[in-house]
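Methods — Computational structure assignment.
A single polypeptide chain was analysed. Its primary sequence is given first, followed by the predicted tertiary structure written as C-alpha cells.
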Amino acid sequence: MSASISLFTGDWPSSIEADVLIIGSGLAGLLLALQLASTEVKVVLASKAALGESNSAWAQGGVAAVTGANPFDSPELHLADTIAAGAGLTDVAAATSIVSGGARLIDAFAKLGVPFDKNPAGVFDLALEGGHKQARVLHSKDTTGRSIVEALADRVRAAAVGGRLTILENTCAADLLTLGGVCVGAEFIADDGVQQVRASHTVLATGGLGQVFERTTNPALATGDGVALAYRIGAELADMEFVQFHPTALRLDNAPAFLISEAARGAGATLLDHKGRRFVRRFHQDGELATRDVVSRAIHTVMAEYELKQVFLDLRPIGAEALAERFPNIVKTCAQYGIDVFSEPVPIAPAAHYMMGGIRADVSGRTSVAGLYAIGECSCTGLHGANRLASNSLLEAGVMALNLADLLLSTRDKSVGAVGQSVAGQIVIPSDLQDFRKQMYRHAGLVRSRLGLEGLLRTPAINISASGQLSIEQLSARNIYQVGLLIARAALMRNESRGAHLRDDYRHSDDVNFARHLFLSANAGAAV
C-alpha cells in the first residue's frame, strides 16, 4: 500500500505527531523520506529553507562508488584510497560498510531518475579526483549535487497529495525535545510561530557548518545546526577538530568563495604561483592530485612565502572543448566575475568546505542518545578519518540514508513519543558574529596554534532573551558560536598535526598519543 505525502502550508496545528521526524532536506534527508514514503510510517520532513536547499545541492564533483563501469577498480581499492586519505584515523569497519554500499546507492539513484553522465558506449563516465588511484566518480556535468537533489525533491513533491509524509519548508529547528534521556522530537520556529513536532525517531540530516568560517564554499544555511542541537541534549561528538578546507575556491574581492571542483584537477588543471610556476610537486609527488589536506597546505605555504592573497588554477590544460562540455557551470560562474577561463587562470585560495567530524554515529545513523539519529555531513562515522577522500561525502550521505531506512522499517515500535522538554538555558551569541567568523578562519582554519585557539574561547558574547520568539538568524548565530567554540576546544586538545588539522606549534603527527579519536559531550565534557 502506497503512503501519500502532503506539503504543509497552512496554519500550524496545536501539535504535529510523527513516527519519524527528519530535520534537513539535502541528499540524506530526501532519500530517507523517499525510502519511507511507500510504507505505513508517518514522516515529517522539515527544511530550514526551501525543499532541497542544502550543501548537497552545491556539490559539484560527484559520487565516488564502485559500479563495475571501471574494470580495473574494486571496493577494496576504493577502501584503500579512503584509508590512505584519512591519515591514520579512518574507522575501517565503517569505511568498509559504506564503500561496499556504493553500488546499491547508485542503483537507487538510477531508479529515482538521477541523470549521471555516460560515455558514447552507454557506460557511466567516471572522473578521477585527488587521492583516488582509479577513476570512480560518477557525475552530472559539474552540478552533480543539484542534479541529485532536484531528482529526489521532484519525487517527493510529485507524491504530495496529502497523507503520511508532511513537508515543512522554511522551518528552523530551535531545540530537540527529550524525556528521560530519550529524544522525542524537536521544537521549530517558522514565520507562523513556534511549534513542537513529537516523534518516536528523530533524524538529523542538517548538513555542514561552513558558515562558522568567514570564507567558505557552503551556502548561507550551513550553520552547524544539527551538531549544536545534538550537543545541547548530551549527544557525543567526535573529531570536531577536522574541518576540510577545499584547496580551490574562487578568490576575488566582493565575490563568494565559489568552488572550483576537484574534478577539474583530475581532468588536467594545474596550480600556479604568482609567477606562473607549478608548485604542488614541491610538497607531494602526486602534485595536483594529492589529497585535499596536502594541496591546501601547499597553497597556504606558497601564499605565506610570497605574502599572496591567492594563487591560480589554470583550467586551460583541460582543453577548450572538454572544458566547455564537462564544466559549464564553472565556465559560466567565472565569466560572471570577469574571468575567461579559456584565456587566463582563475585566482583561488582555500575555503572551509566539509566537516569530517560531527555527531558520533554508526553507519545506520544511531547516536549516543536514544531516539536520535544523524546521517550525512552532520554525523561522524569515522569514514573520513582526519581528511575526507574527494566525493566520499555524497556516498556516505546516501548509504547512511538507505541503512537507516532499513533500520527504521525493521523497528516495530512506531508509537509517537510522549511530550518532552526542550533544553533550558541561556541563548548566547557572539557580540560580533562577522568578526567571530573572521577569527575562526584566521585561528581555527588551515593553521592553528594554542594562542589563537585560546583567544577564540574568549570571544565576547551576549545573552539574548528566549522569552519571545527567536528569529532564524538568531538561532543560526547561536549555533555558529557554539560549534565554533567546539572546534576550537577540540583543536586545542589535539597537540599534533594530522590530516586537515595543522598546529603551527605541533607540526608533526604523534601516533603514540593521538592516533585516536577525540570526543566531546555536554554531559561528560571532553573525553579521549
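Note: The first strand starts at residue 5 and ends at 7.
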